[in-house]
Amino acid sequence: MLPRQSNLDPAAAYPKITTLRAALDAGDWPASRELLDAAEQAERSYLTAAVADVDGLEDFLRGVLRGDPGDGTAGALLGQHLVEAAWAIRTRARAGHVSREQFVAFRAGLVEAERVLVDAAARSPEDPAIWTARLVTARGLRLGLSEIRRRYGRLAEIDSHHLPGQQQMLQSLCAKWYGDAALTYEFAKEAAAAAPAGAPNPVLLAEAYIEHSEVVTDVDRVRAELREAAMRSVWHPDFRRTHGWVRTMSTFAMAFVLLDDQPAAASLFDALGGRGSRWPWEYLGDPAATIEKFRARAGGNT
Description:
Elements (H helix, E strand, L loop, with lengths): L14 H11 L3 H10 L2 H10 L6 H11 L4 H19 L9 H24 L4 H13 L4 H14 L4 H11 L7 H14 L8 H9 L7 H13 L13 H14 L3 H11 L5 H4 L5 H12 L4
Helix pairs in contact: 1-2, 3-7, 4-5, 5-6, 5-7, 6-7, 7-8, 7-9, 8-9, 9-10, 10-11, 11-12, 11-13, 13-14
């Protein structure tokens, strides 16, 4: 039997993405906003990011905002679109591999995104999607860790377990940005411990390990910590397959692969049923091919 191919299209697991994309493609802002405004808080941030690359989105949303400058949802989505567009110019390469021209265009794009998001935050200060996006602009514009912490504090006041924002905060605490492995693990452990049983938030420990796996010396301890985190999250009976669950399971799977915990990885590959997420597997190469290779190595069902 041939192995199942990993489906990396997030819309396969989250039909709301397809519905929202269709509404935006049709220029139906009332339907788009209704879907976004009805979403749970974390889902709202995930959906905003998932459709930020829709063709013609910038012109469409600027038109919406000309008609209603107070539409914070349109501002949140436009800001996220501009963030994604800026990062596409910079690419995910290390700074040494990014040209001066790319950096100039990247910064200009983030400055415009920040302007849009500041206005949106003034209109809709309780929108977690706006504050999540503003964590990214603060990092990209190098506004400093104190400003990033301030923005995360505002987000935590709205939703103390907002995983999309916590994931952005964790990135800022990584050694490649403003922190180090110790700061990253400290934040991940605190957020994981505070989350309710069955929540996805303990995946932050897996993300912290993936970001700093090269400096880990006590592999047995980390393996035990991640198994405990999975027990409180993806292996817990209260774990919900709501928006973000595929990335959460996929991230745990990659962490267990790196830790050579094949039984743990296999259980997650089986639970994913052929689904997967580009991040974090793209760190290891082509995501689909890499997932298939490690699924086979772990002995997951085919």
